[in-house]
Amino acid sequence: MKSDSSPPGKGFRSFNRNYWVAIIMEFFERGSYYGVMSVLSVYLVLDVASGGLGFSKESVGVIKSTITPLLYLLPILSGALADRFGYRRLLMFSFVIMSLGYFLTSMVSSYTLVFLSLLLMAVGAGFFKPIISGTIARETDESNSGLGFGIFYWSINLGAFIFPLILIPYLKGISWSYIFIMASIGTGWLLILNIFFFREPPRPSSTKSVFQVLKGVVLVLKDFRFVVMIVIYSMFWILYFQMFDTVLWYLTEYVDMSPVNSTVNSLMARMGAQTDWKFEAEHVTVINAGTIIALQLIVSALVKNTKALPTMIVGIAMGTVGMAILSVSMHAWVFIAGIIIFSIGEMTAHPKFISYVGLIAPPDKKALYLGYSFLYGVIGSGIGGILGASMYVHFVDGLQRPGLLWFIFSLIGVLTIIGLLLYNKFLAPREK
Q1: Residue 368: count of CB within 10 angstroms of its CB
Q2: Is the pTM of this model over 0.70?
Q3: I need a labelling partner for 253 at 20 to 30 A (CA). Which of 13, 19, 33, 52 fits?
Q4: Domains and CATH numbers, the chain
Q5: Does residue 55 surpass a pLDDT of 80?
Q6: pLDDT, greater one: 365 or 170
Q7: 210 close to 84: Cβ distance less than 8 angstroms
C-alpha cells in the first residue's frame, strides 16, 4: 500500500513524489560511496609525498575487512529499527553520521583516526541501505513494483558510473581530500530532502524488536542447507571485493594504460574535443557499473527462464575467467577485457542467487531468508580485504609475480563452482 495516492497514469507517471525522493537519495548516496571506494585503497597506500597517507597494504586490508562487512551486517538491525521508530528518524541519523564520517576522513591522517572516521561512514551507510529499499517496496504495488525496483537498481549503478567518471578525476587533481568533502556534501545535503520532502511511508502492521530480529538469525543459521549455500557463494564475492583493493593496486603499479588512453583521446579528437584523458583507478568502478547499465537488461532477458543454480554456476564461471584473464598479460586491453567479463559474470550470477534463496526458503519464511541472504557480503568482504592484501604483498610486492596472484584468485572461483556443483547434487531442492 502506498503512503499517498499514486498519480494517474502508467510507467514513470505511476510513482508518487516519495518514490522519486528515495531514488534521488539512493543516487547521491551510492554515487558518493562508490566515488570514494573507487580510489580509497589507492589513496591510503599512496606515499605522503604524492598526496596519500602511506599506510601499509596489510593495514588497509584490515580497514576494508572491517568497514565493508558492516555495510552488509547492519541492515539486519537497522531495518527493524526503522520499522519501529520511523524511516525519517533513521535517515536523519544516517545522513548525519555518513556526512560526518566522510568529512573527518578528509581532515585526518593518522591510521587510528582514519579508521574511526571510515567506521562512522560505514555505520551511516549500513543504516541507510534497508530504509531506501523498504521505501521503494512501500511506495509501489503489484502494478509497478517491477519497474520501480528496476529504476532503483539503475540509480545505484548510475551513481557508481557518473561519480567516478566525472567528479573523482577532477577532484583528485586538486586534492585527494576533496573526494571525501564531495562525499560529505553528497550525503549531507540529503538532510534537506529528508526534512522538507520525504514523507514517512506507512508502517507495517506488526514490527519486530531487536531481540526478535536476533532470534531470526538463530533460526536461519540452523538451516544447514541455507548456511552451506551462503558460505559457498561468499567465496565468489572474495573475488568481487578485489575490484576495490588489489585490482586497483595492480592497475596503479603495473598496468600501462597508454593504449586505452590513446584510443579514447583519438576518438574524442575526431568529435572535435582535444583531451588528455587517462584511465586510472576510479575507472575500474566505471567499467563495472557501465557494463551493468549497458547489458543487465539483455543478460536478464537471456536467463529469465533458466534454472537458478546452473545459471549461477555459469555466471561465476564467467567471473572466474575474467579474473584468470588478468594473469595472462599486463596489457591494457587484456585488463579491460578481464574486468568486463567479470562484470558480466557478476550480473548473471547475482540476480539468480536472490531468486534461488527464495526457492530454498520455507514458504512462510521467504522474507526472513532473503533478509539474511546478504551474509554472503559479510563473509566475502571480511575475508577478501585481509586475504587480498596479504597475498598481494607476498606475491606481487615480494615475489614480483602478479600473474600468480590472479591465478590463485581464479582457483577460488573454481572452488566456488565445484562447491555449487556438489551442492546441486547432494543438497539442492528440485527447481520447478
Answers
A1: 17
A2: yes
A3: 33
A4: 1-206 (1.20.1250.20), 208-432 (1.20.1250.20)
A5: yes
A6: 170
A7: no
